[in-house]
Amino acid sequence: MNIKKATLSDLESVAHLFNEYRIFYKQPSNPEGAKTFIQERLTTGDSVIFLAGDDRGIVGFTQLYPTFTSIGMKKAWILNDLYVSEEARGAGVGEALLHKARAFAGETGAASICLSTAPDNETARRLYEKNGYRQDQTFLHYELEL
User: Fold this and answer.
1) In this predicted structure, what is the pLDDT of residue 140?
2) How far apart are CA 101 and CA 48, in angstroms?
3) Is 52 helix (H, G, I), strand (E, B) or coil?
4) Which of 21, 42, 97, 100 could be joined to 62 by an S-S link, Cβ 3.0–4.6 Å?
């Protein structure tokens, strides 16, 4: 398996997986919207996307967004998206992407990586916990939908 940072030349593959990711989270299929969104992220550099590939092609991705911890006075990363295509699940792709995200966060001097997942996504929760992620017991997180 090969993990690499996505570039604009990967746009079609990333957009396809991103659309599948959104469908997994019960959003309507929107291939053009997915392509536009990913193209904007890659063009502006306001996120970092890592791709996992094997002999089948690109089979997974993770997308990280930068943020900061005021208390820690350091950079932090939000692991907003992690997706592995159905045919590649169970082969260690998700774990390899988590390892790459962790290494990248360390290289950038980040204090932490945070993520969210659906409470019923047991597979993802097991993967995250196996890789050292713990449910936050210190702060309550709130969201204002606009």
Assistant:
1) 86
2) 9
3) strand
4) 97
Q: Which two tokens stand for residue 68?
A: 């900061």
Which tokens is 11 given?
A: 């746009």
Write out the two tokens for 7: 């570039």
Three-state SS at 17: helix
Per-residue tokens: 139:
């702060």
State the residue for tokens 């950038």.
108
48-54 and 2-5 beta bridge pairing:
antiparallel
Enter the tokens of residue 102. Answer: 């962790």
Query: Using only C-alpha atoms, what is the Rg of the chain?
Result: 15
Q: Where are the domains of the chain?
A: 2-130
The CATH code belonging to domain 2-130 is 3.40.630.30
